[in-house]
Amino acid sequence: MENETSKIIQVNNVSRTYMQRERKEALAVLEDINFSVKEKDFVCILGPSGCGKTTLLNILGGFVVPTSGEVFIEGNPVKEPSPRYVTIFQDYKLLPWRTVRKNIELAFEGMKQKKSRKEIDERVDAQLASVGLTRFAEFRPTEISGGMKQRVAIARALVLEPKILFMDEPFGALDAMTRDDMRHKYRLLLKESGQTVVMVTHDINEAIFFADKIIIMHTSPGRIAYTLDITLPENRDVFTPEFHEIRNEIYAYLHQK
Question: Region 155-159: what's the mean pLDDT?
Fold first, then answer.
């Protein structure tokens, strides 16, 4: 039986509807979502476009309020964003006039508890090193590649040392070769950093590569259809029979539906 104290995120009966002004009717985007996430787990929310994955992630991050139901993080209801749980969005949201270093420092601006200049510099330096961008610290976003921009976005999230990281298709805009390289680098980095991670994706291979648990969603309205625990080793290879077996299981389930 799952230990209740190990659950860092608890989602209870969450639904979300939006009012369509032209038709004057409610559109159900999410319906009766229930799941939990254990501390230090990597959970992938997998599903097609339009199933409400991003809306669900925004609810978890405190950016969207559910129409009904509630989300608890560390036993407390989520009412607003917090530096203890940080979201990495699909578009990197880098400020073009700021350098790589200054874009990472942006994470500290507006915080209620201010950090000293020394601590900010030390944390930023550590993150620049961890994502391999030390020599690009004074470059601007227009001077670096898409993969580097994504590394800046991840460094900016990790510099706050959050307990939970929410990621919305963070590798979706990258080319295939860069995406494959980034996946290998960041699975180990995120595991070593000790964060609990919830990541949205529509890529089955990506979900299997990262996840300890995969939550598969269906559309109209978005709802959880299937949950799969992944027991592959930490050092994963997409070409192993075990990886193919899990992928075939997911494909078979989706084909049936």
Answer: 89
Q: What does the pLDDT read at residue 44? A: 96
Q: Which domain holds residue 94?
A: 90-160
Of 128, 160, 192, the domain-final residue? 160
Asked whether the whole model's pTM tops 0.90, one would answer: no
Residue 254 lies in a domain: yes
From 160, 178, 194, give the residue that closes a domain: 160
End-to-end CA distance of the chain: 29
Q: What is the pLDDT of residues 35-66, one digit of tens each?
A: 999 999 999 999 888 899 999 999 999 999 99
Q: Is 220 left (phi over 0), alpha (psi -120 to 50) or beta?
A: left
- 49, exposed or middle or buried, with CB in 10 Å at 0-12, 13-18, 19+? exposed
Query: For the chain, where are the alpha helices, taking DSSP H only?
Result: 53-60, 100-105, 117-130, 146-158, 176-193, 204-210, 241-256
